[in-house]
Write a structure and sequence with these properties.
The complex is a heterodimer.
Chain A (H helix, E strand, L loop, with lengths): L1 H22 L5 E7 L6 H20 L8 E7 L4 H14 L4 E3 L4 H14 L3 E3 L14 E3 L4 H14 L4 E7 L2 H17 L2 E8 L7 H8 L5 E5 L4 H12 L4 E4 L6 H7 L1 H4 L3 E4 L15 H15 L5 H20 L4 H8 L5 E2 L4 E2 L15 E6 L2 E4 L2
Parallel strand pairs in A: 1-2, 1-3, 3-4, 4-5, 6-7, 6-8, 8-9
Antiparallel strand pairs in A: 10-13, 11-12, 13-14
Chain B lengths: L2 H33 L6 H19 L3 H24 L7 H23 L15 E3 L2 E3 L1 H23 L1 H11 L1 H6 L4 H27 L5 H16 L4 H22 L4 H15 L7 H6 L1
Antiparallel strand pairs in B: 1-2
Helix pairs in contact in B: 1-5, 1-6, 1-8, 1-9, 1-10, 2-3, 2-4, 2-8, 2-9, 3-8, 5-6, 5-8, 6-8, 9-10, 10-11
The chains are: A alpha/beta, B mainly alpha.
Chain lengths: ~375, ~290
């Protein structure tokens, strides 16, 4: 009984002890991270985890932030929304982080937003969907280019080539479904019409049925929205069926893996909007983004012996923006970091130039994308 | 593209994909016929067949035919190991317990493949060069002919094996009544091991010939296992012909739904038809014999 009565006192005591410890200068600044390192979304989470750990080392080598060491605590949500919620609880309550980067997927991000809002911890998500920051939520930011920017880029490109009738073929996962919504919503204002609206399962192994149906319509180009391997299968099926009209893809396939899977012959001529990261070597030396891209590519590939992907870049942007905000705020308190994030302007990340503001928590424009064409198994920037 | 050509294209597509399901289904049939176990690691055998061939090419620089053959034989070996290490120690337990063991093995194989091969998707080069073949306005990849040919060959040899060889008959006897089979001098253990080897072999064969068309990754086994099982259920469990026919029917249904109705409801429509069929004919389309055996 004695022990039981003592327990509350002990809890209060330990809480006091930990707050006074946090105030001490020697205590590291803890930034939390949730990535899908394993499971179906591992292609996103693995490079993101690698990048975050690499930056932790780099920041500390450069003397840390505000004279304190930086500690990035990464949890794997195993591509599972429920596990992301458990991880965010642990980060907030046990690890007492000052900011959180990630999660990798839209589903996990949407699931943890209520938690970070309640705990008043800033979140910089690495997931794509526009609805994460639209409408603007006080504590939530994101780094990847939104779907609507990619859609706008494609529609403008098609319109300039005199194409007005389009067929869309989207994956039935979160990424594809969000793309489908934006494609249908943006068509009217861009002056194009969607004449066929087809869907494929993310694990499907043959899309000739959908393509045959599209072939029977008067579509002048096809837009495919999905992540590997589905779009690679579509590229192969397209050559099989002898479809000659233009094929646009989303930024979701902007990795060398796509060309490898589809085969250079089948990928030839495919057009897509992409961040400048994958076409780093074609970016002119004078470009303001060139330096950070070249450094990131060199360091990542040197250390992990694998090609960079756009996704690892999203984590680079998220971590460095939090670091930037800590510097601007000259404080590592969550609310000060949040306020400072809205003051991050003219910040060149891997995705483009970020200009955050109280009205815009993504901070990117259509300029973050370039249109690229796959030519002889390589990316070629289009003017 | 005229409507008749479109229709033909849907059938070609469906039949190729359906052959995939059928080959996965054939493997279920072999083990079921010898042990009454439904082996949920069957999809993993299919995955391993494709993945091992891909990596033999990448790491070993082995010529394609050798890689293909080697990977199929290696997977057959894994099938034997699975029986020896996980099924035989539990001999005498209920069939349900053993089925649960196979689910465990499938998770283990999938996890192992993820660690060894990584999480990426890979492609295998096609077995024969050449562009698509045009037939009645529809097109067909040369690899689809390989799929059709190998599936037919596997099916015919299965049928002959189970119905016309002593070994095949002995295997079926084990499933009917273990004790009686043992009393007749059949080594039940050897038959079970053989059935695992055979079913792994058929599964891996499917994985290897499909990898050039469908691409492969560590987690393709889940879906293939599920669809293969559906194909078996549709065609009647235990009947090799039923498994392949069931697979092709399922594939064509999916492709026709995608083409004529809506690609969004492709899987749903195929499974609704499967359910309806099973309500009307619980033993499957070609499974009449099964009813009297039970």
């Amino acid at each position: 009984m004695r022990g039981l009565r003592l327990r509350p006192a002990l809890v209060v005591l330990s809480m006091l002890a930990s707050t006074s410890l946090a105030a001490a200068a020697a205590e590291p600044i803890r930034i939390g991270a949730i990535f899908s390192v394993t499971g179906p979304a591992a292609f996103l989470g693995e490079p993101e985890r690698n990048t975050a750990k690499m930056l932790e080392e780099d920041l500390n080598k450069a003397g840390g932030l505000l004279g304190r060491k930086v500690e990035i605590i990464v949890y794997d949500d195993e591509s599972d929304t429920t596990k992301a919620v458990t991880a965010v609880d642990r980060l907030i309550k046990r690890d007492r982080v000052v900011a959180i980067v990630g999660p990798s997927t839209t589903g996990s991000t949407l699931a943890i937003i209520p938690k970070v809002e309640e705990a008043r911890i800033p979140l910089v998500s690495c997931a794509a969907a526009k609805k994460i920051v639209d409408p603007v939520k006080k504590w939530v930011f994101k780094t990847p280019q939104s779907d609507d920017l990619a859609v706008k880029k494609i529609y403008t490109h098609a319109k300039n080539a005199g194409i007005t009738k389009l067929a869309i073929l989207t994956a039935s996962d979160a990424f594809g479904a969000a793309g489908r919504e934006e494609l249908k919503a943006g068509a009217g204002s861009s002056g194009v019409t969607v004449v066929a609206d087809e869907v494929f399962g993310p694990k499907d192994t043959d899309m000739t049925a959908q393509l045959t149906k599209i072939k029977g319509t008067d579509a002048q180009a096809i837009i495919v929205w999905g992540t590997n391997p589905g779009p690679a299968v579509i590229a192969r099926n397209r050559t099989q069926l002898g479809i000659k009209i233009r094929l646009y893809m989303s930024h979701g396939v902007a990795s060398p893996k796509f060309i490898e899977l589809a085969g250079p012959d089948n990928a030839e001529g495919i057009l897509l909007p992409a961040g400048r990261l994958i076409v780093e070597e074609q970016t002119p030396p004078g470009h303001p983004q060139k330096k950070i891209l070249a450094e990131y590519v060199k360091e990542y590939q040197g250390r992990f012996k694998q090609p960079v992907s756009t996704f690892g870049g999203h984590a680079w942007d998220a971590v460095m923006e939090v670091a930037q905000a800590i510097k601007i705020a000259n404080s590592a308190e969550p609310d000060a970091i949040r306020d400072a994030l809205e003051k991050v302007k003219g910040f060149w990340g891997t995705a483009g130039e970020f200009n955050f503001s109280p009205e815009d928590h993504n901070g990117l424009t259509e300029e973050a994308f370039v249109m690229v064409r796959i030519t002889k198994g390589n990316w070629e920037i289009l003017r | 593209m005229p409507f008749s050509a479109q229709l033909l294209q849907y059938v070609f597509t469906g039949a190729t994909v359906g052959a995939t399901y059928g080959l996965a289904g054939l493997g279920f049939t072999v083990i079921f016929n010898a042990t009454e176990i439904i082996n949920f690691a069957q999809g993993e055998f299919v995955m391993l067949g494709g993945m091992l061939a891909v990596f033999a090419l990448r790491w070993g620089g082995i010529p394609l035919p050798v890689a293909v053959l080697g990977s199929v034989l290696l997977v057959a070996g894994i099938g034997v190991a699975m029986d020896r290490l996980t099924i035989r120690p539990l001999r005498g337990r209920s069939v349900i317990a053993l089925i649960i063991v196979t689910i465990g093995v499938s998770i283990l194989l999938r996890g192992g493949a993820m660690l060894v091969f990584g999480k990426d998707t890979f492609a295998l080069p096609p077995f024969s060069a050449g562009g698509p073949i045009t037939l009645g306005g529809a097109t067909l990849l040369p690899q689809s002919l390989w799929v059709a040919g190998v599936t037919l060959l596997a099916l015919v040899s299965m049928k002959l094996y189970f119905e016309h060889t002593l070994l095949g008959k002995a295997m079926r006897a084990c499933a009917c009544d273990r004790k009686a089979a043992a009393l007749m001098g059949i080594s039940v253990d050897a038959m079970v091991t053989l059935s695992f080897a055979l079913s792994a072999l058929v599964g891996a064969l499917g994985g290897v010939i499909l990898a050039p068309i469908t691409l492969t990754s560590y987690d393709v086994g889940i879906l293939l296992g599920l669809k293969g099982f559906a194909a078996c259920a549709l065609g009647g469990l235990g009947n090799p012909f039923g498994a392949v026919a069931g697979g092709v029917i399922l594939g064509v249904l999916e492709s026709l739904t995608a083409g004529l109705l809506s690609s969004g409801y492709k899987d749903a429509v195929a499974f609704v038809i499967l359910l309806l069929l099973l309500f009307l004919r619980p033993a499957g389309l070609f499974g009449a014999r099964r009813a009297e055996r039970a």
